[in-house]
Amino acid sequence: MSFLPYAVAAWLLLVGLYGVVTSRHLVHLIVCVTVVQASTYVLLLAIGYRSGAAAPIFADIPRSTPVVDPIVATMTLTDVVVEATVAALLLALAVQAHRRFGTLDPDELGAMRG
Amino acid sequence: MELAPLTVAVPLLAAGGLTAASSRVSRATAEVVALAAVLALAALCAIILARTASGTEVYWFGGWEPRADIAIGVSFAVDAIGAGLATLVSGLMIAALVLMWRYRDTDAPHFQVLMLIFVAGMVGFCLSGDLFNMFVFFELMSVAGFALAGYKVEEQEAVEGSLNFAITNTIGSFMLLTGIALVYGRTGALNLAQIGESLAAGHVDGLVIVAFALLAAGFLVKAAVVPFHFWLADAYAVAPTPVCLLFAGAMSELGVYGIGRVWFDCFAGTLALHDDSLRLVLIVAGSLTALLGATMAFAQDHLKRLLAFATIAYVGIFLIGLGLLTSAGVAGAALYVVADGCGKAALFAAVAIVQHRRLHVSERRLRGEGRELPYTAAIFALGALSFASLPPFGSFFAKSVIEDELIKQGYGAVLAVLILTSALTCGAVLRLIGRVFLGWGPVSDREPSRDEEAAPEEEISSARTPAIMFVPALALALASLVIGVIPGTVEAVQAAALHFTDGSSYARVVLDGAAPAAVATPPPYSAPPHAYLYAAITFGTAVGLAGLALFGRRLAPRGSDPLRRLGHAAIGSLHGVHSGHVGDYVAWLVAGVAALGGAFALALS
Question: Can you tell me the ipTM of this complex?
Fold first, then answer.
């Protein structure tokens, strides 16, 4: 198992967080949130991956065949579903923010200071 | 334990049914269905609480019990602390739904559906024995929470507060999930007990520490511990007030519970040698949170923001209690969560009544406007006394248990934090009682801020308050009092905490199906004399602070006092840090995760 997928996961996490912190546009910011989220997918799949192993479906392969871990795939799928909901909700809020504030720049929202 | 899955199934089925029939359901029907579901849920939780008094009980979904000490299925592993928290959640939800009844014309049945999903997520989180399921229930609760916070979507504040809440907490959830992935990578397990066994058999290295730091960070974001707390005041100030009952009374506390669950069942076995250093980290974080929350609460004018910052302050105290990492600390924190949860929820319910009558919740603008609301004032007074943790409120005994344990563990200095936090929050509520209900203090001479011009939750003010709005407020205020009066409560919570902190017994129950280890019955609890002294000091300080805030200007001419100018500058810079900018909040969050990871690495290596 190579080091690369973990480096990719760490990179996605950091670059996504940098984007969220510096973003000047809410839709861009929400896309950055989904980049952070992508790092969790990569990490989960990297943890369960085994080089040269088959898919974990034992219908047509011997029971002793090495397979990749199906649990992490399930976790990733659950994660995708959960975070798709979050992204949809965030985008809906961004639409509302545009309607109420007339801008999508988080610097100009500012109804919450103090 | 066949009842355990019903606690999640009942509210979710009711939510599903209401959604399916949404076009044909009237508002009254939706309210009756939601209330019936939550009443059933509360009954279920209470039965489970009674049955788990003697230790952890486990339910394996689909009958997938462990084979040869390996957990292959997914479980609910319920102990009295988890079941008690679930009961508190469902009780608060009943109060919120009753308050909602006459509160405002909500968009039925969507509001009720969101509330039911919210409560299902919270209860599932309390009962789950599986780390990934904890995450899923946590997210279910969070997403419903985001939607509820932004429910009044026609208001600028609601949209922005909900966005800040959602983005910050989603990043926190990713930290949690990354931690779970690392733990799974090391142990190959998701069951809490299995993780604990597997980690204890291995060695401690950077991976374990980073994983624990990430899990803790994820929970601390929800608990709103400094510096992860910024979103909380924004979200709580804009959410519909009945929703705040749940937010302030239980949601933040679930984050603290999550840390306790993960520590005692998974990490205590492997990191036990380092618990002294971890204790220091948690107690320092808790103290900072408590002091900052209390100071900000005292500096607020908006009543809901005041209570939101008080929520932060008390989460700090709960973290101090849990951070002692002993059963007595956990017992104190658990009892405090229930007592203070009821007290804060009662205050929010009282704010709902004020809002119902006066349409806005700015303390200065409300000056003297509450004179004809004596009953509401009485509820505020009960809430203030609960904040001051005066006997016989439940918070008095909870605080006295924590104080004893702090002294025993050599953290006597932290007592000052507890006293100051209670005094500041109680003082803030006393000040608002004096200003709003008695008309004391100077007339406001400054322009109303944007915050104060916030659009009302209701279109027209009401001449009288429907009696049903008083029911939840009064019931909650009395609950915070009664908890301290019922004999045996403290001892029962102490026994529950002994079970909660015994990770090895938990593992045997979950993995081997063994009977829970018996715990020694705690001796009857009586608060030591100095606890009464501390309570008196707290209340005296609170009265003094409230008096200073109301009449300080009359005693000393304005501007003459350098101390006051310094105070204004400090409060001003604190206000400035709470910028309302989500990028800033996430930057603080990242810095906090780095600091937490660094502190853990130093403490645990």
Answer: 0.94
Q: Do A47 and B136 touch (CB under 8 A)?
A: no
In a domain, B453, yes or no: no
3-state secondary structure of A54: strand
CB contacts of A41 in chain B (<8 Å) are none
* Per-position DSSP letters for B419-484, written without gaps between them: HHHHHHHHHHHHHHIIIIIH--SPPP-SPPPGGGGPPPSSSS--SS--HHHHHHHHHHHHHHHHHH
Determine the residue type at B385.
L
List the one residue out of B381, B128, B470, B167 whose CA is nearest residue A33: B167
Could you report the per-residue pLDDT of B513-523, keeping only the tens digit for each?
888 888 888 88
Query: Between residues 57 and 86 of chain A, which touch chain B (CB distance below 8 Å)?
Result: 71-72, 75, 78-79, 82-83, 85-86
Helices (H), A4-105: 4-22, 26-48, 70-101
Asked whether residue B448 is domain-assigned, the answer is: no
Q: Which residues of chain B have pLDDT under 70?
A: 102-108, 444-463, 555-561, 605
Q: How many domains does chain A have?
A: 1
Q: Give the orientation angle of helix A70-101 with respect to helix B156-187, to 10 degrees.
A: 170
> Closest partner residue to A40 among B136, B181, B575, by Cβ?
B181
For the stretch A46-79, pLDDT in tens is 999 888 888 888 888 888 888 889 999 999 999 9
In a domain, B449, yes or no: no
| Interface contact A29, partner B, CB < 8 A | yes
Output the domain CATH number for residue A16.
1.10.287.3510
CB B418 within 8 A of CB B320: yes
